[in-house]
Amino acid sequence: MSSHCCSHETPQPDRVQNLGRMRRVLWIALLVNAAMFFVEIASSLGAGSLSLFADAIDFGGDALNYGVSLAVLASALAWRARAALLKALCMLGFGVYILASALWTLYSGGVPHAATMGVVALLGLLANLAVAWMLYAFREGDANMRSVWLCSRNDAIGNLAVLLAALGVFGTGSAWPDLLVASLMAALALHGGWSVLRQARAELRAPVRAH
């Protein structure tokens, strides 16, 4: 009988062996991102920083993404691809929302507090570098695990960008560096979301194979 008639895929031996490690890493990543979401959302509101707010929303979205990844980790490829599709749409939605917020802030004005931005961004960077280091081994996996790696990588880049924005705000006394970095983070989310979306759609179109 053709393998295309199979109603499920048999997990690859190396994937089964790595499931325990993947699950542990995802749980750590989920907890770290959830904690940083609460820290950054409060700090961004206090500092009036859109780039820090964007980073906070990114942390929250990533915590949700890691939870979804945990839920489908041992599922068939089609279900993992559907989960990645959902996460890609979230990444795209985040990017659009931040770009719209940046345009609105151009009219509402206000200069963020640079010191708060810098301290919190540094804390976020350390957290994300630790998570990215743990997830590095899974960067070339299926769309589900690739989306996890991209989220972690984007967060680390975002934290560096917020640090630069803090320096820019401190040096210029204006909100332009903050808005510019927030827009760049939105563009990064749009690019990453589109990349995961394409891979997930390709995996959904691929025939189910037995291993």
UniProtKB/TrEMBL annotation:
Localization terms from the record: Membrane
Keywords assigned by UniProt, alphabetized: Ion transport, Membrane, Plasmid, Transmembrane, Transmembrane helix, Transport, Zinc, Zinc transport
Gene Ontology CC: one annotated term: plasma membrane
Molecular function GO terms recorded: zinc ion transmembrane transporter activity
Membrane topology: Multi-pass membrane protein
Main location: membrane
Top-level lineage group: Bacteria
Protein name: Cation transporter
Organism (species): Comamonas antarctica
Lineage, highest ranks first: Bacteria, Pseudomonadati, Pseudomonadota, Betaproteobacteria, Burkholderiales
